[in-house]
Amino acid sequence: MSLRERGEMRSAAGLAPFLRLEGFYMTLSPKHLDLYRKIAWLFVKYARPAIIEQANFGSEAKVDKESGQEDPEKFASSLEEMGPTFVKLGQLLSTRSDLLPKRYIESLERLQDDVDPLPHETIREAFESDLNVRISKAFKRFDEKPIASASLGQVHYAELRDGKKVVVKVQRPGVRERINSDLEALLAIANYADEHSELGRRYRFSGIIEQFQRSITDELDYSLEMQNLRNLGRILEDFPQLVVPQPIDGFCSRKVLTMELIDGVKVTDLSGVAMTEFDGEAVAEEMFKAYLHQVLVEGFYHSDPHPGNVLVTPDRRIALIDLGMVGRLSESMRDRLFALLTAICEKDSDRVCEVAMKVSDSPTHSLSRAEFTSEIADLLGRAHNAEVKQLEFGSVLMDVMRICSEQGLAIPRELSLLGKTLLNLDRVAMAIAPSFNPNASIERNLNAIARKRSFDSLKQGDLMTMLLEFKELLARSPQRVNDILSVLAENRLRIDVDAVDEVALIQGFQKIANRIAMGAIIGAMIVGASFMMDIESKFTLFGYPGLPMGIMIVAGILGIGFMWSVFRNDK
After folding, report:
1. What's the CA gap between 409 and 352, in Å, rounded?
2. What is the pLDDT of residues 477-513, one digit of tens each?
3. CA distances to 91, 138, 359, 433, 533 from 550, in Å
4. Predicted local distance difference test score (pLDDT) of residue 454
5. What's the CA gap between 397 and 301, in Å, rounded?
6. Each residue of 320-341: pLDDT tens digit?
7. Phi/psi of residue 94, each to 5°?
8. Using CA atoms, how far apart are residues 229 and 248, in angstroms rounded to an integer?
9. End-to-end alpha-carbon separation of the chain, Å?
10. What band does 466 get if pLDDT is binned at 50, 70 and 90?
11. CA–CA distance, 449 with 292 (Å, rounded to integer)
12. How many whole angstroms separate alpha carbon 9 and alpha carbon 38?
């Protein structure tokens, strides 16, 4: 056994005290024992110290170096070694600035999803078994060497029979089964940690794994990505400088996605000569405008615009690729996000705090509003004074969420994902236009979106409803005004106020007084009878003086009846 495996075994064995288990034992599936060991080692070695550091978790915040406060880069590389499930999990955790410190977020953002390519024969069999057609029949040309090879699928260049150039993404055989197995183990550990650890109760790890399960399940279904491509293509029709590859009908399934080939280079690979021929400012402005339209108007957006997924085409347009991960927002969430983004642009710390508390589902009675507002104001002030090249709107939004988490406000997943999206968008804009001001662009475009949202809210159906309600109001107003004036003239105006029921309150006090008096009387009878026991008497009961013994019996009966009344009637 290697030194590392021995260390993993010791860490796994030490998982119980780290999680503060409460005397319960987790049911382990034998087929996942090795995976449990690796996950436990990762948690104890990296994740737990990082979460405690970020949360400043009371006395537990003092994590000594021997407990495993390691380089975040090693955490990221360990996830890469464990396979596709954990690479994707790391990418999800990179959106959780409320959970992990900034240096961990930065390391996880750089996680690479590149793996060794599969043999062409394996890809050919996967394609033909899923679409029930031979590759040689479907395509005039199909390159055996992949353009890209990731943990979930492999991308190949191809040409259709009519000469149209396409790319074909084929899912790796067996990857779905492996991910499902990994998720089963992760969910078992997360549920156990939630029930039996303080960290789990606070952060609800099972919720994070369930969110991850939904995300990666959608990413494994290429038919959903096909729909995403079509939806985003429709949304971006009014933005000519942005393009999205469209799927090819008849060549797509749950495990195969064929789409138009878009020639281009990554925005980070643009040469100096190309930059001089490229109006980066205009393109960056249109990108931010398009994204705000996706988020705040459509409620559907490309949520992973990192530089590897953004290409510059030969005709100097921006191409958005890889729509396996998208964001969706309800109407109410869009309204709140609009208010939050507007407040950040206007440096209105009070408004930012107010909207953040509305977005969060956490109770706010224990929140220190003065401290919360002060930290937000300090953040917005520093962002306002930053140089243009240092402005990152996504970073400001992520910092707002971090402060919310520190104050005990639970931030919904939609806001975390949007913060990561805007952070990537900032970096793309910086690559194509180093002097571009994202804050000013968002502020300009929010005004235009506000007008559009107001106009869109006046749809024909809504307008007709408003007119009918206004007509009803006008028709009934004279009668209602007449009724009000009659009540005032006849002095019949009455105001009902829901207040404390003083009758019930007095009865409650009277009940308490009666109970106290009854208890005092019973106690006095018992004490008095005890003193009278020493007085000699010819009348006896059970060998004791009769009078005090009778008083004692009566007191006992009253006491039992009193206790029965209390247990039966009082709540």
Report:
1. 13
2. 788 888 888 878 888 777 766 555 667 778 777 888 8
3. 81, 106, 69, 101, 11
4. 64
5. 17
6. 988 888 889 988 888 888 888 8
7. -70, -10
8. 11
9. 62
10. low
11. 8
12. 8
According to the model, what pLDDT value does residue 63 have?
A: 43
- Cβ-contact 258, 423 below 8 angstroms: no
Among residues 372, 375, 377, 370, the alpha carbon closest in space to that of 362 is found at 372
Q: Which of 264, 396, 248 is nearest to 318 (CA)?
A: 264
Q: Is the pLDDT of residue 133 over 50?
A: yes
Within 293-412, residue ranges assigned H as helices are: 331-345, 349-359, 369-385, 393-406
CA distance 374 to 371: 5
State the chain's maximal CA–CA distance in angstroms: 126
Count each helix (H run) and each strand (E run) in the chain, helices first: 24, 13
Asked if 46 and 81 touch (Cβ cutoff 8 Å), the reply is no
| Cβ pair 121, 132 in contact under 8 A | no
Among the ranges given (193-197, 280-284, 565-569), the one the predictor scored with the smallest mean pLDDT: 565-569
For residue 184 the two structure tokens come to 């089963």
197 Cβ contact list (under 8 Å, min separation 6): 19, 20, 21
Which residues are annotated as catalytic?
A: 304
Q: Strand 540-541 vs strand 544-545: parallel, antiparallel, or unpaired?
A: antiparallel
**Helix H or strand E encompassing 154:** strand 153-160
Looking only at the bridges linking them, the beta strands covering 318-320 and 326-328 are unpaired
pLDDT tens for 204-253 read: 778 888 888 888 888 899 999 999 999 999 999 999 999 999 999 989 99
Report the predicted TM-score, pTM, of the whole model to 2 decimal places: 0.68
β-sheet bridge partners, residue 148: 155
Residue 549 to residue 552: CA distance in whole angstroms: 5
Between 5-19, 331-345, 362-376, 520-534, the lowest mean confidence (pLDDT) is in 5-19
Pairwise CA distance, residues 123 & 172, whole Å: 8
Q: Three-state SS across 425-456?
A: HHHHHHHHCCCCCHHHHHHHHHHHHHHHHHHH
